[in-house]
Fold this protein.
Amino acid sequence: MHQIVKENPNLDFSQTYLLVRLYEVEDTENPGIIQDIIYATNSQNPVDFRDLKSNDECQRILEIGAHDLGYVYKRKRDNTLNINVIPSTVAAEAVFAVWRESPHLAKYRRNEFFDKYYSLIFDGLNAAQMVVAVLIFRYCDNNRKKESELDGIKEHRLYSKAEQTMADILKDYFNNANLSEIDGRTMSAAFRRFDIMERYLKNETWWEENMG
């Protein structure tokens, strides 16, 4: 209802009635019970799984982390269009393609991001990793569209380029061609310091020299 009112500010909803079901929760110290009620009451209805997962703790953490990095992470459906806005659907597709190394599934399994593949995509994901994946994904997707118009290049070639770009960045950053030698703690620390974003993804000179 809130979304409808927001999208139609000129309409008069003063005579609109909405059927509401209220639940009295006694165990207020258990925050998970509210989410359980949401899943139980909506899982049998045609509700977008993205909306059902939007209040998960990991989604809230990504929203806060993205804000700290200068981005707006949209956990729920929203029509806002801006280069700094990252819808959760875009984040899921980018992370699935880049970090989870599954561009083929990211392209053709979008309706399962917040259901079947939800844990695979979002478990252990932090905001910096998400932003990196989205920036790479958007760059490759923009080039895919341009190249497709020019010479009909197939999409899967440019989706695979996202993986290669991420690998090349990490190899250069750690000065090590064998990424399997880099332990997870070292990799995570690099993203927490945001060095990779500053040195590569926000560096226009680097983009022009290496991605032009």
